[in-house]
Amino acid sequence: MNDDTLITAVREPFTGVHMNTPVEQIVSRGRAVRARRRIPGMAAAAAGAALAVTALLPAGHQPGIRLAAWTVAKQADGTVHVTIRQLRDPADLQRQLRADGVPASVTFFGQQNPSCRDYPAASPGLTRLVISPYQGDSAPYRCGHPPVGPAGRRLLCTRTPKYHTPGTLPRRGQQRVSMTTATVADSILSAPAPRGAALVAIRHWWAPARLGTADWRSVLASCPVDTSRVKLPVFLRFSSWPTASGADSFCSCAAHPFPAAWHLRVGRVIAFTTPDHASAGDEQVRLGPCWVPPSASSSWPSAGVTQPAAVQAQWANTSSKRCRGSLSTNHCRGRTDGSIPGPGRGKEKD
Amino acid sequence: VGTQRLDFAEFYRGSRDDCLRTVLISVGDQDTAQELVAEAFARACASWRTVGRHPAPAAWVVRTALNANISRWRRRRREVSVPDPGVVTDLPAGQGPADSLIEPRVKAALMRLPARQRQVVALRLFLDLDTGRTAEVLGIAPGTVTAHLARAIAALRHDLMPARQEETRS
Predict the structure, then answer these.
(1) Which of A91, A346, B14, B94 has the most crowded Cβ, counting Cβ within 10 A?
(2) In chain A, which residue's Cα lies nearest the Cα of B46?
(3) What is the pTM of this model?
């Protein structure tokens, strides 16, 4: 076989590879690049100094106020835009979000949120679940479902393929943000036999990210989920994300009827799956369910939060296994209530 | 400005796929390649007055994308990454990422080549650059380009041809 045949054999498989970024997006980004180059050095330095003075001071949530670490701005249409520039003060951010009517629990990587408690995933009172990227040894992050649970209730999970070293911030003052939200619709609506539940993981790259209720709804609108049963957002989780991309997040769904088994792809991250789709070895999963007691927030649903003794014992047993493998000894030692560890991170600092 | 933008749009539409394929061969991951090429085109747009006069603007874009990849690697070398267990394995057939469309054997054969040989192959085969221009883009001597290409072709023939010949026989 001659060189031409070989070259054809090499080129042929790539004919299906196409660049799908619209030219308008490229031109828009090009304009931004050009504008950035035109900023005079002195002006940039002055702006930097001004920012430095006001930096690191998260403040109130009045609409329109620009904050150094993060901004919560409630829009006229009721949506709440969150802009994260630094992963600081999650408890205060959570408080501001709730003040704006967003029942959010915010956790930054590497920082504990004092108002967020670990909670057994299998409890009937579970309405929120966040699953964090696993970080540590070579084992990939896995997901699963609780060993027991009320009939019809679904606990969903996501897999996060890549993650970012905690504490490492991107350059240019931009914060890459990922958000994960989970909701079990019937728990919130106190209605039996839920149509299904939703768990969304959205990665907005090339932050500052602006995510609000409208964003969640727009994501779900293109997917076969009964959005009328889903209250969004329920759980927000902010963390650094490794992939920088000028592209907006997008969504595409596999053609599986919910709730049998279906996927939502946000970017290149699979964000939806169901317990039916959980993989073998789920007992090794590192789930990070988080329960915020009703007293911590007036807007938080307070549906049954007690857990059956059997469930508690079961999770207590599982907990000890997990702690040995994934969390620090101190973290395990301090756990006496039989709850499972918090968001699984292999290198968590207490 | 309007003409300038039109020129860039035409250039983008005409060369984006070739640039993407060229960068894809070099970096091996389609999502990454797409991000890099998009960023490179954005920079080309920002400097279109200069880039538009370049004898091979597509080569400029590819070089910029490859440089961006190096910068990206430098920024992230301390970050930890794990294999992505869910994206491909959990998706039903036909829902995988676009680069799964590429024949795995061809992709594997290309990935086995050293990075420089891969770049030479990509620039010569997908951008149709001549030896001189390829050498210019990669910053190496034309003779080195020829040598890299010859070795790459030999390696690809060794990897791909036996299987193809067996297919033909059967």
Answers:
(1) A91
(2) A30
(3) 0.41
Q: What is the pLDDT of residues A68-85, one digit of tens each?
A: 556 666 656 555 555 555
Q: If contacts are CB pairs under 8 Å, which of residues 210-229 in chain A contact chain B? A: none
Fill in the amino acid letter for B135.
A
B78 touches chain A (CB under 8 A): yes
Task: Take residue A187 and report the two structure tokens written for it.
Answer: 């728990």
**Nearest Cβ partner for A30 among B16, B46, B165:** B46
Mind spelling out the 3-state secondary structure of chain A? CCHHHHHHHHHHHHHHCCCCCCHHHHHHHHHHHHHHHHCCHHHHHHHHHHHHHHCCCCCCCCCCCCCCCEEEEECCCCCEEEEECCCCCHHHHHHHHHHCCCCCCCCECCCCCCCCEECCCCCCCCCCCECCCCCCCCCCCCCCCCCCCCCCCCCCCCCCCECCCCCCCCCCCCCCEEEEEEEEHHHHHCCCCCCCEEEEEEEECCCCCCECHHHHHHHHHCCCCCHHHCCCCCCCCEECCCCCCCCCCCEEECCCCCCCCCCEEECCEECCCCHHHCCCCHHHCCCECEECCHHHCCCCCCCCCCCCHHHHHHHHHHHHHHHHHHCCHHHHHCCCCCCCCCCCCCCCCC
Q: Do A17 and B41 touch (CB under 8 A)?
A: no
Token digits for B3? 């003409």
CA distance A287 to A328: 15
Q: What is the pLDDT of residues A281-307, one digit of tens each?
A: 222 122 222 222 333 332 222 222 233
C-alpha distance from residue A232 to each of A198, A199, A235, A245, B170 (Å): 10, 10, 8, 25, 58
Quick check: B159 contacting A, CB < 8 Å? Answer: no
Model pLDDT, residue A154: 29
Q: Say yes or no for a CB contact (<8 Å) between B42 and A30.
A: yes
Q: Does A269 touch chain B (CB under 8 A)?
A: yes
Q: Which residue has the higher pLDDT, A121 or B14?
A: B14
Nearest to A17 among B13, B41, B99 (CB): B99
Residue among A272, A288, A253, A257 at smallest CA distance from A117 = A288
* More confident: B113 or A119: B113
Which whole-number Å values give the CA distances from A183 to A39, A156, A235, B16, B103, in the listed order? 44, 9, 7, 41, 40
pLDDT interval class at B60 (50, 70, 90): very high
Query: Given this model, what pLDDT does residue A48 score?
Result: 56
Contact yes or no for B85 and A140 at CB 8 A: yes
Q: If you average pLDDT over residues B23-43, what whole number do you get?
A: 86
